[in-house]
Amino acid sequence: MIRAYTIASGKGGTGKTTVTANLGTALAQYGRETCIVDTDMGMANLGLVMGLAETPITLHEVLAGKAQVQDAIYEGPYGLKIVPSGLSLQGFQDADPERLKDVMQDLTNRCEFLFLDVPAGIGSDAVLPLTVADEVILVVNPEISSLVDALKIKILTEMIGGTVGGVILNRATLESTDTNRRKIEETLGVPVIDTVPEDAYVRRAAAARAPVVARFPGSESSKAFRRIAAAMAGFPVEEEPEVVQEGFIERLARALFRRER
Ligand SMILES: Nc1ncnc2c1ncn2[C@@H]1O[C@H](COP(=O)(O)OP(=O)(O)OP(=O)(O)O)[C@@H](O)[C@H]1O
After folding, report:
1. Quick one: 237 exposed, middle or buried, by C-beta within 10 A (0-12, 13-18, 19+)?
2. CA torsion through residues 40, 153, 7, 4, sign
3. Reading across the β-sheet that carries 192-197, which strands appear in turn?
4. Ligand 1, atom 25: nearest CA belongs to which residue?
5. Bind-site residues for ATP
6. DSSP letters of 157-217?
7. Domain range holding 29?
8. Atom of ligand 1 nearest to the CA of 139
9. Annotated binding-site ranges
10. Are 130 and 136 in contact (CB under 8 A)?
11. Domain contains 79
12. What confidence tier does 82 reach under pLDDT thresholds 50, 70, 90?
């Protein structure tokens, strides 16, 4: 059965794209058919973070009715499917967010796990993804403004018939983690699924245009992302599942034939 997650936050810059890219890649490393979609159509950057070079057809064209979903799917590491958004303002204007439901319908037939990276705020392009997935996961940082904005998104999600499944506390520091965890659960009334530490390797990987779980698998943030992905995939907590190795031939083939078919 497919699981579809919307990764949201309210406040900008909490780590939605980072979480989407790394949970998607980690699940793909575990051999799970996974698709990540950039629904941040105004400020798209999932394709950039995942190192996609040319993306002539994107979610923009699909939502404008000019292309099929399959034409906007690109292959990432470990067979991860990526649907990027376009970078042009014209493409953003032409895209009709209402078509997202049809895109989801199509993608659910192609994968076991689906993640939607949504824009910050409560604009129409941010609101629709809150209802189309099985559950919303809120990405919160250890600061009060992030928590307040997450609460707004939780209330909004429930008002429009969606479900918030839990919170990922991202960029946590040692001294803040425990108190923040409790404060978040009390304020939002949903569990903190897990914590991802503040980790300079995340930014180093982003600069190299790769998710940290692929570029620096031994880093503390990678361990956290793999732990969350393993739990989502239903692996027992105490055993780390085997990671599929991507060989030279696969990497070369991906570089040469990026488009998913
Ligand atoms: N755990 C972490 N440790 C260190 N840096 C991080 C971590 N998570 C995210 N970052 C950095 O924080 C910045 C914002 O992250 P990201 O782009 O994922 O946020 P976002 O919520 O998607 O932003 P936006 O709202 O603008 O779409 C990036 O520079 C990213 O590399």
Report:
1. exposed
2. negative
3. 74-75, 81-83, 34-38, 113-117, 3-8, 135-140, 164-172, 192-197
4. 12
5. 11-18
6. HHHTT--EEEEEEEEE-TTTHHHHHHHHHHHHSS-EEEEEE--HHHHHHHHTTS-HHHH-T
7. 3-236
8. 21
9. 11-18
10. yes
11. yes
12. very high
pLDDT given at position 239: 66
3-state secondary structure at position 37 = strand
Q: Whose CA is nearest to atom 8 of ligand 1?
A: 15
Q: To the nearest whole percent, how much of the chain has pLDDT over 90?
A: 62
Q: Does residue 125 have its Cβ closer than 6 Å to ligand 1?
A: no
- As given in the structure block, the two tokens for residue 130 are 């809150």
% of the chain exceeding 70 in pLDDT: 89
Choose which residue among 11, 17, 141 to substitute to test ligand 1 binding: the one with the highest number of ligand atoms within 8 A of its C-beta.
Answer: 17
250: in domain: no
Judge whether 219 lies within some domain.
Answer: yes
Q: What is the CATH number of the domain that holds 175?
A: 3.40.50.300
> Is residue 15 lining ligand 1, measured as CB closer than 6 Å?
yes
The answer to whether 95 and 84 are in contact (CB under 8 A) is: no
> For residue range 31-48, what is the model confidence (pLDDT) as tens digits?
999 999 999 877 778 999
Most confident of 1-10, 176-185, 245-254: 1-10
Total domain count for the chain? 1
Residue 249 falls inside a structural domain: no
